[in-house]
Amino acid sequence: MKKLLTLMLSVTLVFGLAACAETATEPTPTTPEETTPEETTPETPTFRIAMVTDIGDIDDRSFNQGTWEGVVAFAERNNITHRYYRPLEGGTAASLDAIALAVQGGAEIIVTPGFLFEPAIFQAQQLYPNVRFVLIDGVPQPGDFSEFLVAQNTVSILFDEHESGFLAGYAAVQDGFRELGYFGGVAVPAVVRFGVGFIAGANYAAEELGVTISLGSDRFDYFGSFAPSDDNKNAAAAWYLQGTEIIFVAAGGAGASVMAAAEEAGAKVIGVDVDQAGESTTVVTSALKQLGVVVEQALQAWLDGAFPGGETQVKGASNQGVGLPADFSRFNNPAATEAAYDAIYPLVASGEIDVPATYEELVAFLTAEGISTANIPLQSDVE
Amino acid sequence: METIIEMRGIRKAFPGVVANDNINLVVAPGEIHAILGENGAGKSTLMSILFGLYKADRGEIFLRGEPVSIDNPNDATRLGIGMVHQHFKLVHNFTVTENIVLGQEDRANGLIQLEEAKQKIIALSDQYGLKVNPDSLIEDISVGMQQRVEILKMLYRDADILIFDEPTAVLTPQEVQELINVMRELSNEGKTIILITHKLHEIKSIADRVTVLRKGAQVAVLDVATSSIADMAEAMVGRPVVFDLQKAESTPGDVVLSVRGLSVYSPVYKKNVVNDMTFDVRRGEILCIAGVEGNGQTQLIEAIAGLTESQGEVWLLGENISDDSIRERNLKGISHIPEDRHKHGLVLDFKLSNNLILQNYFEPPMQRRMMLNFSNINEFSASLIERFDVRSGKGIHTNTRSMSGGNQQKAIIAREVIRDTDLLIAVQPTRGLDVGAIEYIHQQLIAQRDQGKAVLMVSLELDEVLSVSDRILVMFEGNHMGEFDAATVSDSELGVAMAGGNR
Amino acid sequence: MKRWWQRSALAENELFVSSLSSVLAIVIGLLFGFLLMVVVSPSESIQGFRIILTGGFNDGLLSVGSMIVFATPLIFTGLSVAFAYRTGLFNIGASGQLMMGALAATAVGVPQWWRYEGELRIAMDNPFLQLGSWHWVAALLAALLAGALWGLIPGVLKAYFNVNEVVATIMLNYIAMFVNSLVITRYLFNSLIGRAFSVVPTALFPRMGMENIFTDGLRSSQANVSFFIAIFFVIVIYFVLNYTVFGYELKAVGFNRDAARYAGMNAKRNLMLSMMISGGLAGMGGASLYLFAGRNLDPVLQILPQGFDGIAIALLGLGSPIGVFFAGMFFSSLKVGGQFLQLLSFRIEIIDIIISVVIYLAALSLILNRLVLYVLKREKQ
Question: What is the SS3 assignment for A210?
Answer without folding.
Answer: coil
